[in-house]
Amino acid sequence: MTAFANLLSALVPWLLAVTLICSLFILVLRFVAEPFAPGIEFGPLVRRLIDRRELEPQGPALEEDASPASRRLRRRLRRNEWAMHMQLRLIVWILCVMLLSRLLNLAAAMVGSVLTGSLDRLFTAAISHWVRWDAANYIDLARLGYAADRPELLAFLPLYPLLVRIMAVLCLGHYVFAGFLVSNACLMGAGWALYHIVNGQYGERTARRAVLLMMFSPLSLVFSVPYAESLFLMLTLLAVLCARNRRFGLAALFGALSCATRLIGVLVFIPIYMESLVYLHALDLRRTNRARFYARLGMYTAISLSVLLGTCAYLLLNIVVAGRPFAFVSVLAAKWSQSFGSIWNTQSYSVRLAFDYGNLAWQLGTWIPQAVFIFASALFLLAMSPVIQPAEGLYAWLYLVLTMSPSWMLSGPRTLTAMYPLYIMLALASRKKWNYIGIMAVSVALMCFFSYMYSLMGSVV
């Protein structure tokens, strides 16, 4: 078994490298070509940007004797009424799906506790039982702030614990309950934003599949417990949605907040900037007014780069707390044994420890899932590279490589759960009925398994 583990740990990283290189070539080619190649088939989004109201209902014919201003007003009122009705229906549907998936998480934990004879543990600590690993650090950070006697907390970015601290005031000082409220509210917002992003590109059925696949994803439990993943996912999706609707300033604001939630949030610059280039190409200023074209290009570049303000705020916080802008790097190395390595190394030791770690719970809950998720994500990204929007594909590629590169990674599957293009790709891959049934069945089964492992075994980090 040891020889087989060594063979896999040596071979799989090379296969991973080939997979990532091939997908990167396809994505970069598409990313460069789409905004500036007239008539290219990759960009149906350009047409949607030019006329966003083509699918909106116009209502019945109005009276002949009504004035033009009156007809326009009445059409607008009817459109707004229809839009509000549809939004309420959508919010109710997302809420029902979310509650169903959370109940399934709880049911899986209860069944597992009955089988292991530990049901009393689940009820005697009904809330704190779910606060494990980094969730406990987020709650401590919300309660104590960046305390001098807890230097390891500097590794966590401030926005999520700040929101929990504010919510705790409304919850009469119950920080854990406030963390649950913030996480689940952000999960609702993420579902709403994901639906609108996918609906604008691929239609309502695909959008609903994407939301369902997100809510029932294998590690969707982390979206509801006190982790920053749901907040990060919501802010990233809102930034992309605003960019799709040409509200680039608002997109940059949400992007900056995403950067203040997790460092990898800087990657949202890619879809925001891509959308601005697509819009700039649709304006056709390069041919008609070059001076205005370059002025707009500079403005959109500056707006997109302003997402880095969130990261700058975190670096400033490091100066205030520890006297150095990159003090968190030392904290990660000293307290969490993390430095920047490579995804190939992470894949190698994950495969090796999946066989030889010596603790079955950790092998099943951490190392085997991490080894499988990294390689499967790379293969899936390669398969979907010709289909997905190039900006989202490039975002996913960089997200996968950068987040899986720390020298000691324990939470790979949890980190990949917040990669938003994953749900778009899964929705596209499940357009056929039996593909959708198969993907959902596997996803729900894994969600139940990981819910049990997290709540009772504590081996999913």
Care to give the gist of this entry?
By secondary structure, the chain is mainly α. It has helices at 2-33, 44-50, 68-115, 119-124, 134-144, 159-170, 175-202, 204-215, 229-244, 248-259, 269-283, 285-288, 290-305, 308-322, 327-336, 343-356, 360-384, 390-403, 412-417, 421-429, 433-457.
Can you describe this structure?
- With 461 residues, the protein is mostly helical.
- It folds into two domains: 1-33 and 337-426, no CATH class; 91-336 and 430-461, no CATH class.
- Helices cover 73% and strands 0% of the residues.
- The protein contains 21 helices and no strands.
- The protein has helices at residues 2-33, 44-50, 68-115, 119-124, 134-144, 159-170, 175-202, 204-215, 229-244, 248-259, 269-283, 285-288, 290-305, 308-322, 327-336, 343-356, 360-384, 390-403, 412-417, 421-429, 433-457.
- Helix 11 (269-283) runs antiparallel to helix 13.
- The longest helix is centred in the N-terminal third of the chain and has 48 residues, at 68-115.
- Mean pLDDT is 85; it is low at 38-66.
